[in-house]
């Protein structure tokens, strides 16, 4: 399989990135971030999640953020919906895509969504059906596809098992998530292969957190298998509240720099993306967690 000539990035910074921030981020800042990301050329943005505000207070302004975005034609706006309650709440804001999120690890499923893997599938099934009935695209996230903060290494068979369950209820696309960023290229390839037993290559993406600095290598390893869709997070924002110690996703800026260097098209303007990352990092009073952004910002100053 040759390396893809075009790659699609799904920007998850506003959701996966900001969900973990302790300080309140006003809806207006989130909206501005989304606007900057779409202006930089991102074609899919995971905006927010319709989860319990007691569990994830940072996403409590989901309605307000979705309502405040001036949508750009051709851009897909997705939101997380763990159950029918979340899905019904999300409907008002007319997402193009919803994400149901399960885990390959039983312990993580319990910690993250308070139910077993089997129960999660029972909860997702009516959500998937309701979404598809009205033409909303359904993506599934498969957390802990390589390692779990509670159970350690996760065997590829468990990823295949979850992928089969997701396929069985009508999920259209799945993301293979290294939630805690412990994966290395061969392990990530095994998890992707397990997923490809049940989903076509065009319906599988990579979602790699960068805790151990492996996410770019894992992205390249996935591309070597023909995977061409990845979730990335501007300024490397984020983490999951239920995966202690895990850092953000691979920085969007770093992935775009890699792809630009390899002549792989993304439609994203790196300079504008760096500005978007600088905007949110300034708000959070820290530097962007992206090597490429740091290098280019330093060069601009010189
Ligand atoms: P639960 O407590 O098991 O649900 O939560 P419940 O049905 O028993 O309801 C309990 C309370 O929650 C009730 O409120 C419900 O109304 C409310 P109360 O009567 O106590 O006031 N509730 C909700 N409120 C708003 N929206 C909803 C909703 N559902 C119930 N949708 C639930 C189950 C899933 C909601 C909860 O466990 C939760 O919100 N968990 C947070 C999960 C989360 O957001 N995790 C982070 C995102 S996943 C991630 O980051 C990983 C990913 O990036 C991939 C990767 O890297 O691995 C995707
Ligand atoms: Mg994540």
Main features:
TIM Barrel; globular; binds 3-hydroxy-3-methylglutaryl-coenzyme A; 8-stranded parallel beta barrel; single chain; alpha/beta; 302 residues; 10 strands; 16% strand; binds magnesium ion
At CATH level 3, the topology is TIM Barrel
Q: Helix count?
A: 12
Q: What fraction strand? A: 15-25%
**Strand order across the biggest sheet?**
1-2-3-4-5-8-9-10
The major β-sheet equals:
8 strands, parallel, barrel
Q: Cα-atom Rg, whole angstroms?
A: 18 Å
- Kindly report how far apart the N and C termini lie: 42 Å
Highest CATH level, the class: Alpha Beta
Shape annotation: globular
Number of domains: 1
Q: What's the CATH H-level superfamily name? A: Aldolase class I
Helix content: 40-55%
- The tally of strands reads 10
Bound molecules: 3-hydroxy-3-methylglutaryl-coenzyme A, magnesium ion
Q: Supply the helix-strand structural class.
A: alpha/beta
SSE ordering: EHHEHEHEHHEEEHEHEHEHHH
Poorly predicted runs of 5 or more residues: none
Describe the secondary structure blueprint for this structure.
Layout: E1 8-11, H1 13-17, H2 27-39, E2 44-49, H3 62-68, E3 76-80, H4 84-91, E4 97-103, H5 106-113, H6 117-133, E5 137-143, E6 147-148, E7 152-153, H7 156-168, E8 173-178, H8 185-196, E9 204-208, H9 215-224, E10 229-232, H10 252-261, H11 270-284, H12 291-301
Parallel strand pairs: 1-2, 1-10, 2-3, 3-4, 4-5, 5-8, 8-9, 9-10
Antiparallel strand pairs: 6-7
Structure description:
The chain has 302 residues and is α/β, with parallel strands linked by helices. The chain has one domain: TIM Barrel, CATH 3.20.20. It contains 12 helices and 10 strands. Strands 1-2-3-4-5-8-9-10 form an 8-stranded parallel beta barrel, surrounded by 8 helices. 3-hydroxy-3-methylglutaryl-coenzyme A (HMG) binds next to helix 4, helix 5 and strand 5.
